[in-house]
Design goal:
The chain has about 80 residues and is mostly helical. It has one domain (about 5-75): lambda repressor-like DNA-binding domains (434 Repressor (Amino-terminal Domain), Orthogonal Bundle), CATH 1.10.260. The protein contains four helices and two strands. Helices cover about 50% and strands about 10% of the residues. A two-stranded antiparallel sheet has the order 1-2. Strand 1 (about 60-65) and strand 2 (about 70-75) form a beta hairpin. Pfam families: HTH_3. GO terms for molecular function: DNA binding. It comes from Niveispirillum cyanobacteriorum. InterPro entries: Cro/C1-type_HTH, Lambda_DNA-bd_dom_sf.
Length: about 80
């Protein structure tokens, strides 16, 4: 599954994390997170993997768009 900028922002909100906290936890720079979330650029595949792993380690699950409902995030049950 891929991570959209909106899902990344929503996941940070769910965790109550700043861009800096997500960057530090994933080993990336704040500018990488900021530029991805703002749609300035798509991160390298390795950076995307680190973001996904970090969010998963915190219990965040991505929700795909289904039957007209938009994509999202939630805590894993």
């Amino acid at each position: 599954m891929t991570l959209s900028p909106a899902q990344c922002r929503a996941a940070r909100g769910l965790l109550d994390w700043s861009q800096e906290q997500l960057a530090q936890a994933s080993g990336l720079s704040r500018s990488t997170v900021r530029d991805f979330e703002s749609g300035r650029h798509e991160p390298h595949r390795g950076s995307l993997v680190l973001l996904l792993q970090t969010l998963a380690e915190q219990g965040v699950e991505l929700v795909a768009a289904v039957d007209g409902a938009g994509e999202g995030v939630r805590f894993r049950v």
